[in-house]
Amino acid sequence: MANFYTDNPDLRHHLNHPLMQKIVELRERNYTDAEKFDYAPANFADAMDNYEKVLEIVGDLCGGKIAENAEAVDHQGASCANGRAYYADGTVENLDLCRKAGLMGMAMPRRFGGLNFPITPYIMAAEIVSRADTGFENLWGLQDCAETLYEFGSEEQRAKYIPRVCEGETMSMDLTEPDAGSDLQSVMLKATQKEDGTWVLNGVKRFITNGDSDIHLVLARSEEGTKDGRGLSMFIYDKRNGGVTVRRIENKMGIKGSPTCELVYKNAPAELCGNRRLGLIKYVMALMNGARLGIAAQSVGVSELAYREAHQYALERRQFGKAIIEFPAVSEMLAVMKAKLDASRSLLYECSRFVDMYKIYEDIARERSLTADERAEMKHYSRLADALTPLAKGLGSEYCNQNAYDCIQIHGGSGFMKDYACERIYRDARITSIYEGTTQLQVVAAIRHVTTGTYASLIKTYAEAGYPAQLAPLAAILGDLTVAYEKAVAKVTEANNSKYLDFMARRLVEMAGSLIMAYLLLQDAKDDESFNNTAVVYTKMAQALVAQHSDFISNFAPEQLSAYGIGE
Amino acid sequence: MSLNIIVLAKQVPDTRNVGKDAMKEDGTINRAALPAIFNPEDLNALEQALRLKDANPGSKVTLLTMGLPRAAEIIREAIYRGADAGIVLTDRALGGADTLATSYSLAQAVKKFGNYDIILGGRQAIDGDTAQVGPQIAEKLGIPQVTYAEEILDLRDGKVTVKRRLEHGVETVVAPLPCVVTVNGSAADCRPRNAKRLMKYKYAASTSELPKLSEEAQARVAANPELNIAEWSAAFVEADSEQIGLAGSPTKVKTIENVVFTAKESRRLDNDDAQIEELIQELIANHTIG
């Protein structure tokens, strides 16, 4: 039986990044919990050892039962009867295992029963779970709704709900409605305050992942007569109180083990979480950022699985007297798959570390006021996290789809049959570039970091990091590509035409993303030569992409937009 | 009602993942090439013990293993999964033991342990596959035994009800306590290691491991008695030196052969009495039957 943590040394490499020392020290408040909790670490080495050992448990469960169950879960799927959603048998078993292993509420503080892990090792666990069963990652990963509850709920709400999550109760975020998908400002679910001050919810939600969960975070319209996002508040609905039924679940293409529910609220009692009117503009934005990082992790897990399945098949399948991996057309595909996988993983953990840095400072600010330096550092990392999250989610999910596609291609005719895992991987991958904001919306979130120069300055710090002689030629190429990127950005922004900018946004974001990932791989190769090939392959890809997009941009006249159906 | 439960367990080479280096030239096991693991059916036994503990709050599950000092690894593993404590019975004098000497030594350890309600163990270990040690311990302790257990259905009023998985079906039996129950691989899987327990007990160490730990880890063990894994010697359990180790083992291994199974030539008989009669005569003549 494989262990999905120990069989992948790249994970250990990313976990042991130099920035972790600071993250862990801050997160553990200089290891003061050790006096209060017998499972708290006493120092940095102790904490890192805990993360590794717990990730080994995750890897063991995932490489064992959870991966074993994935096919049966996909075939059986979730079901709906009598107003309730039911998991497939394998999902029930997976959840039970995760509860017994204590893998719920991993990133929650110890005083609520959590493990107090930073985001980075938690996200690593999410990647591993996704490799085992992509749909199960949704259910398990919804524990990060507890993060939002922790950040914006009252101390009483934290104490009431977070220990239940750590004990294994599941969560959901009830946002989408039939007429409010990407446009959440249109949410209509009605929250009414009764005379005694308590709230009830009425209306319908649609496409709710794990919608029959124990604890829901619900976006609802609390301000009668309002029409936009400023009339929305966030509520906590506790299933123990009743009032919400599952009308139906969707028959989906993939992640079939994860029930996607249509919910009917009939006078469902709920608690207001945080302040009125901040539901969408503050809390859901935070919730979505966490969820996007989760989907980025899910995507890397799928990429890993797709690459491994394809690689294994290419080694075993023989044609014309040799294994097909020996044909350049196949080995090139595998090298490109590996490069996309490694690139998206490096970006994922860079982003997780940035999220860790600013979130920990935010949390410390709840206990004491930050120094000016700390506040500056928090702002710095918050901005970087904000810039990298849409890249990690947007580009990582596209890569995982491409890898799932190539995984089938390498299997040839067999890949089209239902007999191999690759067809499930292909179906499961498809949602990653859609939910929690489509790739197109990730571009919308990312483009301001192109125009304001966040990416350019990050790229500059990577370029200045210094590279050993053997990597210098690659670093030189990336230097040239950066010039081309900046030229393309200048051309598009100088036109001062918002439709033209929107039209080119994806190209610019992809260029920035490729440069960032290429530099990250160069840094990986600096510390660990096993990344050398990937660094070369990915730099070649970045070179081709930047050339193509630069060429397109420099040869494009804004008046040609009309040919694409885009008016003035 | 709180129970005192002993689980017998063994650290074994992982014979399920045998590679080409698994055997040495002389036909003995190359232990270095095989990872040492928790004997699988002992994990099934541990799960039954932990379920008894869940149902009877205040119960204590103690793992007892005989082997090299490194067998403390499986005690930590059991503690991560929910066991309370462990004892490694380890001594050079115990080396080379066959099942008789092993069961004598373990029975002595159980006597030293004293007050217990039930002893659970796996049906057999994957390195020897004898299934003799559990039953022999019961005999030496003079208590009943229930073998091939798949599930402990009930435990109350000094009696345990056990579902046994036999070749042609199941049998439910009731045995008085204390007794030995050996558990089949068909029983429920053991629960996973728990993250908090792992972080809490990862520095648990036996007497011989302790000096090898960092000073800081040693200080932790010193501060928390729960982190001590007991190590017992043959003398400590008052074992008779004639009955342990090689001296106490009537089983002597003369030679070991590496057997490669090959298909032999097949022969086809028609359905007629003469040909069948001829085959029977041939089998009698070469002593295959009769």
Written description of the protein model:
Helix content of chain A is 59%, strand content 11%. Chain A has 568 residues and is of the alpha+beta class. Chain A folds into three domains: 9-166 and 281-433, Butyryl-CoA Dehydrogenase, subunit A, domain 3 (Up-down Bundle), CATH 1.20.140.10; 171-276, Butyryl-CoA Dehydrogenase, subunit A, domain 2; 449-564, Acyl-CoA dehydrogenase, C-terminal domain (Four Helix Bundle (Hemerythrin (Met), subunit A), Up-down Bundle). In chain A, a hairpin with a 2-residue loop joins strand 1 (79-81) and strand 2. The longest helix of chain A is centred in the middle third of the chain and has 40 residues, at 328-367. Chain A starts with 8 loop residues before the first helix and ends in a 14-residue tail after the last helix. The model of chain B has no long low-confidence stretch (mean pLDDT 92). Chain B has one domain (4-243): HUPs (Rossmann fold). In chain B, helix 2 (72-81) packs across helix 5 and helix 3 (99-113) crosses helix 4. Chain B has seven helices and twelve strands. Chain B has 290 residues and is of the alpha/beta class.
In short:
Chain A has 18 helices and eleven strands. Chain A has 568 residues and is α+β, with helices and mostly antiparallel strands. The model of chain B has no long low-confidence stretch (mean pLDDT 92).
